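Notes on consecutive records. When two proteins share a document, each keeps its own sequence and its own token line. Never mix them. Below: protein one.
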Amino acid sequence: MEDMNKRLADLPKLAVEAKKESKKYFTNLKRRTPKNLDLVMHELHEAEFKKTDCLSCGNCCKTTSPIFSEKDIERISKHLRMKVIDFETKYLDRDEDDFMVLKSAPCTFFDESDNTCFIYDVRPKACSEYPHTNRKKFIQITELTLNNTEICPAAYNIVETLKKRLPMHSNKRVRRS
């Protein structure tokens, strides 16, 4: 836990330092997207989450809100034995992009004492897929991933590993031997 606290303390600085380079990397990656990008991302995601335990972190639950889809809202409302309108009124707001998000952070359903979730089995899809680094058509969510590197140590590590695994060089040809 102490190691994770240090990682979380260092993450904002590391992510900001790497952001410019990562943004440039993703721009080049979009220009020349390797056919195997999704496969590589899936491998990197799997490898990272073999060594990263989300329960030792919980930073995403402490700092951000997932987007709640209509299906999420219906499922969670039913689980909590609430009417949809009551659930929305009590817990959710519309953000500037017209998405339903939590009214506050940390997440209302997050238990900070042990980093668990009261609604884990019915949690929003955005939570179950976070940090989205193993998603198909990964190239479409590079901006989201860049933002997630500031919140999620695993996302940061995956992006840094990706840059080494699939190096991109702008405006210069790299001769491979």
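Protein two starts on the next line and is unrelated to protein one.
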Amino acid sequence: MKVSKRISLLGLAGVILALVVLAKYSSGSSSSPTAQWSVQVLKVDPGDASLTASFQIAIYESLIDELNKTKRFQQVFRDGDRSAGGASNLLILKTTVQKYTPGSETTRAVTTVGGATKLTVQSQLCRPGGQVILERTVNGNVRFIGSNLKATHNLARNVAKTIKQTSLPEPSLPGQSTDKAQNAQL
């Protein structure tokens, strides 16, 4: 009797494992392949704002991290990455600082009404030829607790969130002419 229970349990476990594996492979393979965009993040343009180099680098690095977290892009390339030139379905993210208000961590620690660090940027997703796909003004700030550089993280998170929530045109499938794909979107 104990042997038959063990065999039944092993058989049941085998059936469950087979169903899990089957479900994984059947949901992962679709009849039509879907293409996914890649993005190259350009260095942050400080514009007319008196932005320190550390803030520019912090915004740039935070953008790379947050865009990777969205899982929206097949690859996230850095500015100057030569392998980006060979990527199909590439978009370019341009970020220009429009407004920067430096804050004070000390003032924030003492009072809740002053010392906020604020950043406003213009973000553009463009095709390599320059055609703008998405253009948004995005804000990032730190008002209460946190270092001034936390504003750069909040800004990058807001840029990534905006891109993730916006419907982008469908990228072309491998082997499909980009002219056809662009005409189909128009």
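For the record: The beta strands are 38-41, 76-78, 90-101, 117-126, 132-142.
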